[in-house]
Amino acid sequence: MYVLTIDQHASGRGGDRVPHLLRAFDAAADIRPVLRAERTVGDEVQVVLAEAAEVAAVVETACRQRGWAVGIGTGTVEAPLPASTRSARGSAFAAARRAVERAKTAPGRIAVVGPADSGAARRAESALWLLTAVEGRRTDRGWQVVDAMRAAVSQREVAHTLGVSVQAVSQVLRAAGWAEAERGRELATWLLEQL
Fold first, then answer.
1. How far apart are CA 69 and CA 6, in angstroms?
2. Are 127 and 189 in contact (CB under 8 A)?
3. pTM over 0.90, yes/no
């Protein structure tokens, strides 16, 4: 299991953005948590996931919202699962707590703590840093085209939907680092699965 503890950076200056982040998680089709994301305390959110691909999706969503430190912990979650994330316990929660504290000063504000092989956690963390570095440079237009591309079959379909040329779609995808980020997401997912 993966537990993510996500803490708002500089919350005193930016106001409470937890509701906005929770709505973004709820709207994401590729995030299907074991225990739903919820505010745990103050400006902090926790979510429990079973799949590594969903971890990458949560990290991407938090990166896109900007201003969040993401701690990823792997390990056990005690059964039976409670109805609320706040009521759950296990080693993955302790790992996520350590990770989010480290994430506050880490590149990309992301840290991974695993139960055993710290080398595996470091490799997964590195892939997530690189992924979010690419995605963090995207413009709003870049995200719009990437979102459309993920829902489409081809660049031609995206061009038709957005009312632009195929060449324009291709240029935006290149500038948005589409190919690099998709491969980075695959790599991060695979590395998280090794924990």
1. 6
2. no
3. yes
Instruction: Report the candidate in 178, 103, 102 with the shortest Cα–Cα distance to residue 137.
Output: 178
Instruction: Give the Cα separation of 148 and 146 in Å (integer).
Output: 5
Nearest to 42 by CA among 81, 6, 96: 6
Residues 30 and 97 in one domain: yes
179-189 confidence digits (pLDDT tens): 999 999 999 99
How many domains, the chain? 2
CATH number reported for the structural domain that contains residue 118 in this entry: 3.30.70
What's the pLDDT tens digit per position in 108-121? 999 999 877 689 99
Q: If we measure between CA atoms, which residue out of 31, 32, 34, 43 comes closest to residue 5? A: 43
- Which residue stretches of the chain are H helix? 11-14, 18-27, 52-65, 91-103, 118-135, 140-151, 155-162, 166-175, 178-193
Range of the domain at 112: 2-137+182-193
